[in-house]
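Entry: DUF3078 domain-containing protein
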Amino acid sequence: MSLSKFKFIPFLLVTALYTVPANSQQQEPVEPRLLDLLELEEAEEPDSIIIIEEEYNPFADFLTDTLDEVSAIKELPLIPTSDLPVITYMPLVFDYAEYIDSIAVTDPSPILASDNEALDWLTIEADRHRRFRDIKRHYMINHPDLVKYNIMTLPAPPKQYKATVDPSQSTIIISEVITLDNKVKEPDTQIEIERRHWLHNFSAGLQFSQAYISPNWYQGGNNNVNMIGNVRWNVKLNEKFHPNLMAEATTQYKLAISSAPNDTVHNYLISEDLFQFNGTFGVRAINNWYYSANAMFKTQFFNSYKSNSRDLKSAFLSPGELNVGLGMTYSKENKPKRFRIEVSISPLSYNMKMSTNHKINVTNFGIKEGHRTISEVGSNAEMKLSWNIMWNITYNSRIFLFTDYDYAQGDWENTLNFSINRYLSTQLYVHLRYDSSRDKVDDSRWSKWQLKEILSFGLQYQFKTI
């Protein structure tokens, strides 16, 4: 065989190389299909194709593009008007993850079942929505590197500003436009809310202490039980509806009973028995100042005896004290309502003391012997302070001073309350009193000054109107 027959072979090979497309050597990577990313097998071609003439359905392409197994769709008597979800054409944003074991991506169970053919479109639409949701979830879980954003870490939207002209100052003011995502739609009809003209504040407490000491205790001592009850009710005029008026009334009752193991006459003694009423009424003068009138009355309910004796120390309306004053009051409360102070100054004040029990020595109350009452005209001043130090710590203080320019008396009461919870509390009460008419007590350094201090633990209950 002659070699001349093969002399055209190199020429043919070179020609074939030049005829191959240039881009066949460097092919661009083909984007993976959704089914490839989901690692789903491609559905086999159906043996026959069913052609149904129907009106245009915007969801048909979406169903056949996402799942090849859908070969035919029932005729839809009603066509849904909603468009394809916008999220389909946007970067993926991870919003939530939901695990549903009973629903597969390719064959979810229908959530709606109805014998009425008119509702078939609703079943198909619900199915389509569930397929879209599950495909999206499955895609993001298996391909987290393709998820662009997370709903929890999305950047803040750009701020918007607006410019307004102020002719009075010949300036342009640029301010930020604040938009609210969730706008509350105002009701068509206004809801009538009952006005509360009076605000109530009620509190009640029962504190106690107990000590047991065995007879052979090396230091000695006595068993004792102490109980302290306190009820307070405050009523105040609502300043929101009556800004030019001030009215407040406070009623308080305290009772302290203690066992008396060393008392041969009494099993128990009453260490404190006080009923007190305070009232204030005023008309606004300027800012926080009011022209005001205030009144105070106090007495006790039970008989009180001296230790190891049947002699009465005090009883109901023995003593009884009434004080009325005219002047001005300053009232101030901060916006968080944690601190409130009220100061009353009465240049004109009337004070009366009484004792209705003939068995009691009236000179102990500053009343002349042979008289049952004493009246005095002078001046008084009162300061009340309320401070919520913390959510469970409150401090209340009251200072009252009266003088008729011959003698003076004053009271300073302090109450520090620690709330353990809604029903348990610890309370420290300190009452300092000054009375220039009192004589010095024998074998004691106390004369004109008097002091009472009580530390107690117990139950509490309170409520108030806002």
